[in-house]
Specification:
The protein has 256 residues and is α+β, with helices and mostly antiparallel strands. It contains eight helices and eight strands; from the N terminus they run ααβαβαβββαβββααα. The protein has a single domain, classed as Roll (C8orf32 fold). The chain is globular, with a radius of gyration of 18 Å.
Length: 256
């Protein structure tokens, strides 16, 4: 597959956020040989990389560039989506951005209860739309990495009905639509509150809507709260939900 930077197409454009010509992104594409794959396989391989190699976690801001997300090695819906879009465009696959808000309830568990008061009621959310066989396919299932998802599934193994929590909102936790099969994928779509529509570039969306937090809450999130949230998510990923709750209880007792 040839890169098509020369084509005048907004869905292939490089932007400040979608900095796919950055050395680290170009090296990654070359290392994995994604340009040599057909469109279906390239979408699947890049999708799987962003879903599982870039683990679920909270970056300092929604508006960081794709190369910064790659450097962090973790992300959430908005930041992992930025990297996914950049990687698709790096190999000539058209993408666009779909903006939403989600209700904060689906983040409970991933965000510990003692931090939940800091979360806005509605949280800026997005997914990626990719052009495949002349149709726009919605991709959202990349948000939660497989290892983290498996740990949550083991704790709620009988859930094949509506489930909301731990960064997940799906109709069937035991079998969510997260695998690339040429069709839509979803993992948080059941928690959507507002639909802000489609944008050619994520930069345009964030210029209009900003980010989730402002002022002192934004500073607290950047320098303290997100690290506590990421610590919480890491415990779930390694040890499961029950051990996460035990670890939080032990930390509370240390400081009381």
């Amino acid at each position: 597959m040839n890169t098509t930077n020369s084509i005048s197409n907004e869905y292939l454009k490089e932007t400040d956020m979608l900095d796919f010509n950055h050395q680290a992104i170009q090296a990654l594409v070359e290392q994995h040989g994604w340009q040599a794959l057909n469109r279906y396989d390239a979408i699947g391989a890049i999708y799987d990389f962003v879903r599982d190699d870039i683990t679920f976690g909270y970056n300092r801001d929604d508006r960081i560039s794709a190369s910064q997300v790659l450097n962090d090695g973790y992300g959430q819906c908005n930041t992992k989506g930025t990297l996914l879009m950049a990687l698709f465009r790096a190999v000539g696959i058209e993408t666009r951005f779909h903006g939403f808000t989600i209700f904060n309830a689906l983040q409970r568990g991933a965000i510990p209860n003692y931090l939940f008061a800091f979360a806005p009621e509605r949280i800026i959310h997005s997914w990626v739309e990719v052009k495949y066989e002349d149709e726009w396919i919605n991709l959202e299932g990349y948000i939660i990495d497989r290892k983290y998802l498996n740990k949550v599934q083991r704790s709620f193994s009988d859930q094949c009905n509506d489930f909301s929590g731990f960064g997940i909102a799906t109709r069937c936790l035991s079998n969510p639509e997260v695998e690339w099969k040429g069709e839509h994928t979803f993992i948080q779509s059941e928690g959507i509150a507002d639909d802000f529509g489609v944008y050619d570039q994520p930069d345009e969306f964030y210029e209009r809507f900003g980010s989730n937090l402002t002022g002192i809450k934004k500073l607290l999130f950047r320098y303290l709260l997100r690290h506590l949230m990421n610590w919480n998510v890491a415990i779930i990923r390694e040890f499961g939900v029950r051990n996460m709750l035990k670890s939080i209880d032990r930390e509370r007792k240390k400081h009381t």
